[in-house]
Specification:
The protein is of the alpha+beta class. The protein is built from four helices and four strands. The protein is globular, with a radius of gyration of 13 Å.
């Protein structure tokens, strides 16, 4: 299994409605990108770490599925529009491989 973690800061002055719409777009990628096993996306709560960001965690069966996701037109389109609400200079991403127990 491969897990992809993505975190990005919300731009100052962006409304909650716009951020929620962006989060919904992320979540609904699962409907259009069939290689996604699970996806969780939401706004951080600032309990520890980043005070105002969006985080997405996506699981795939393997690297080939991840590569398909990264290059899928739906994902590419969402990525291209990210700057509408997010500070694209603040992106943190990482992937880990793990056994599905």
């Amino acid at each position: 299994m491969l897990r992809h973690v993505f975190i990005i800061n919300v731009k100052e002055g962006i409304s909650d409605d716009i951020v929620e719409q962006k989060v919904l777009e992320m979540r609904f990628m699962k409907e259009k990108i069939k290689v996604i096993d699970t996806i969780i996306a939401g706004r951080t709560r600032g309990l520890f770490g980043r005070p105002d960001a969006v985080m997405m965690v996506v699981d795939f069966k393997d690297k080939n599925a991840f590569d398909e996701f990264i290059n899928h037109p739906v994902h590419v389109g969402i990525s291209k529009r990210a700057a509408e609400a997010f500070d694209v200079q603040s992106i943190d991403v990482a992937q880990i491989e793990y056994d599905n127990f």
